[in-house]
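Hi all, long-time lurker, first post. I run a small reading group and we've been trying to get comfortable going from sequence to structure in the token notation. Rather than ask abstract questions, I figured I'd post a concrete chain and ask someone more experienced to write out its structure so we can walk through it together at our next meeting. Sequence below, copied exactly:
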Amino acid sequence: GRRKQSRMKELYPEQFSEFLRAIHEFDPFPWQERLARQVINSNDPEEVWPLVMSLPTSSGKTACIEIALFALAYQADWGERRTAPRRIFFVVDRRVIVDEAYERARKIAKKLENPEKEILKVIAERLHFFAGEEILKDQSPLQCCQLRGGIYRDDAWAKSPSLPAIICSTVDQIGSRLLFRSYGCSHRLAPIHAGLAGNDAIIFLDEAHC
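-- Answer (accepted) --
Happy to help. Here is the structure in token form:
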């Protein structure tokens, strides 16, 4: 494990804007850069993220996904000091927004699966560290899952808990898991889903006023 860590390429906080450009081809807003610096360098799990972010429509709130993912890659070799969670939940009480966030997550995963730019190669390599021997180097180091009603339920995130994951969910789906009442799962699996959703995870609740 230590040898693998030492071979990883270095990643620097100021490269977040480069990462965002490599994914979406636009620069981050100033508030996104400030938040990224705060999250990336924090050593206190209780003060990493603000409890509330009051931002207007179209101000780029969904980029919290990229900030959390970049922080996870940056802290890949931190060991027990790591504050960046392995599982990133984006939760909103609107199915159409869940679908949009899921497509965004898939875009990130595809870019990391076949990285063309150097920053993406570095991010992919560092995220691969969490998977160990579970995946091959030519596979995406990032899982993307969608939890909402009306579609096939994707539980891949719970079957491979070591892999970094972005899970886009409605409120009832993630809520049921945190309360040990996972929709569509057996009683035996419910504690597993609850444990994975409540540990080494961050939950972004969008449209919280709803």
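A couple of things your group might point at:
Residues 1-5 have pLDDT under 50 and may be disordered.
The two ends are 45 Å apart (CA to CA).
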